[in-house]
Every structure is written in structure tokens, then in C-alpha cells.
Amino acid sequence: MPPCCGPTRPDPHPRRADGDPLVGPLPAPTTSAAAERPTFVEIPAGAFVMGSDGSHGYATDGEGPAHDVSLDVYAIGVHAVTNAEFAIFVDATRYRTTAEVHGTSFVFAGLLPEDSPPTRGVTGAPWWRLVEGADWRHPEGPGSDIDGRVDHPAVHVSWFDARAYGDWLGARLPTEAEWERAARGPLVGARYPWGDELAPDGDHRMNVFQGSFPDADTGDDGWVGTAPVGAYPANGFGLHEVTGNVWEWCADWFDPGYYARSARHGPRGPDAGAQRVMRGGSYLCHDSYCNRYRVDARSANTPDSSAGNIGFRVATTRTSWPATG
User: What is the DSSP letter of 259?
Assistant: First the structure.
């Protein structure tokens, strides 16, 4: 996939025999360990049209054909998992993220201070810099922190990290189909969670790159970099920031040809692959090069990759939770 969406980690992650990365210790699954659980919204059982046959997408992403999909009832996070919520998980489990194990992660160059030490760039996308010491607690490297950003999405989170959080919580990552149905809300065939117009009446509805990419983000939508969750109005199902802000990991392996053979009820993606699906776009999306801040847009990355614009939200088949102790 294009590096604009989130560059791929250059040094493959060491693996155990069962395929999980060596980021240990992985937490034991639990249904009630969180003292402060994310808020979920129930998505009713039903059918929707997934994907698009429109000309606004990218053929190599496999956004079509549009096809009918039905899903059973499930629940999904109202917003992306925040730094505060992720911190509870880390504090309870002493979990170390992929970025912390490697000691590096990717940061958008425009967010780095002028006195940053030399960094390694990405071929074809020099705005991405591989920064030593960048991780979820230090989004722009060692001199940064999340003070004042506890309600922003946790970033520099790999697919493995996102899955570990879900396991600990007694939840999981949403399937790609679950993500898209929730992101669309009750609208049929719309490009964005609120309709087809990007900024109706000049009103910004999401956090994407404003200005001339990659040199100048004017912040006209209110934010440069991540925005706090709930910064923009919810869609018809009550979800915030399903487009823009941060890319969100899904459970599925990625295959651009999958829609042509997808199951029509509860699809779970291909059985295997090299990359996992990401959805929703991020604060770095700009229509001049990456018009993927749409509900039908797709992207992907290797599951051990992390960057300052990749986060996640969780889902569950349960519709109620036991009380926490």
C-alpha cells in the first residue's frame, strides 16, 4: 500500500513459533479487568451495501465491487481507543508495544521540532521519518509526551498491540465489514459518514490535512496532528471520527480482490495474507495524493508496523458487560 497511509516497518518483527511477535508479556484475556472501559454502541443486525463502484477510489485498493453484506448484532467503540484508555491497559499488564520493543516508529516530519536529530526517511514519502524513541507515550520522539493529549487516540500502535488490548478487555478488533457498516451509519451509498459533501456549508466534519501537503497544514479544520476523540459530531449510529484523525486497524487480512468472492453474511476477510486492513484515513490524508478519508476506502499495512497516524477502536459481540470489580 502507499506509504502516505502509514509506512511499513523496515525491520521485520521477530516471531514466536505461533506467529505472534516477541513483544511480551502478552496479557491474559479478561472480561472485566478495565477500570475505565471504552464506551460502546450497539449496531443492530441488518444488511448494507459494502464497497463502491465509484470513480473516486483507487483500483489497486479493491474498493469494489459494491456488494450486499448482512451482519449479526454487535457493538463497537464510540471512538478510537484513547491514550488514557491505553495507559490503563499498559499499567495493568506492563505490556510493551511493538514500537517500544524496536525502539523506533514513524513520525510525520511536519510535527518534529526543528532541533530533532537526523532521522531516516521513507523512499517516495520523505515526510515520514523513522524516529528513535517514538512510541505511544512519546508521539514525536523522546522530547514529546501525551500530557494534554490523554483524550487523543493512542497512536504508534501496531495491529498486534491493538489485538492485545482487545484480548485484555474481553473485546476484539472489528472485522472490516463491521467497521464499514458502523462508519456508514444508516446512510446508504454515501461517501462520508454524514453524506456526499466533504464540508457541507463550509463546516469541517473531520480532521484531515488542510493546505498544501506536505509542507503546510493550516489546521482549518481545528487541528494539526491528532484531534481529541469526540471533536466532531457523531454519525447516525453515534460513532465519532470514523473518517480522518487516525487510521484504524481491522481484524481482517487484506486482499484487493477479496470483495469479488466475499461471503455475504458476516465476512471475516481472507484466511491469510501479508498485511492487515486499515480503515478511515487520518489527519495526513489530502485529496491531492490520498483521497482515502471515505467510508468505502481501504488501506493496509503489515501487522507489526506503527506510525503517528495509526490507531484503533474495538468491537465485541456482547451487548452488555459484567460490572468491574
Answer: G
Inside any domain, residue 138: yes
User: Residue 325 has what pLDDT?
Assistant: 35
Query: Which has the closest alpha carbon to 275: 64, 87, 7?
Result: 7
Strand, coil or helix: what is 253? strand
Q: Is residue 63 included in any domain, yes or no?
A: yes
Find cell 526543528 and name the residue.
114
pTM for this predicted structure:
0.91
Return d(Cα 33, Cα 116) in angstroms, integer.
39
Given this model, what pLDDT does residue 116 score? 83
DSSP letters spanning 172-202: BPPPHHHHHHHHHTT-SS-SBTTBS-SSGGG
Containing H/E element for 89? helix 83-93
- Cα three-residue angle 250-168-132, rounded to 5 degrees: 70
For residue 52, give the C-alpha cell: 463502491
Domain span including residue 168: 39-325
Q: Please state the domain count of the chain.
A: 1
115 forms bridges with which residues in the sheet?
A: none
- Read off the C-alpha cell for 137: 507515550
Which CATH number is 140's domain given? 3.90.1580.10
Q: How far apart are CA 268 and CA 277, in angstroms?
A: 11
pLDDT digits (tens, 9 = 90+) for 69-82: 999 999 999 999 99
Residues of the chain with pLDDT under 50: 1, 16-18, 29, 31-34, 323-325
The helix/strand/coil state of 152 is: coil
Report the C-alpha gap between 171 and 317 in whole angstroms.
8
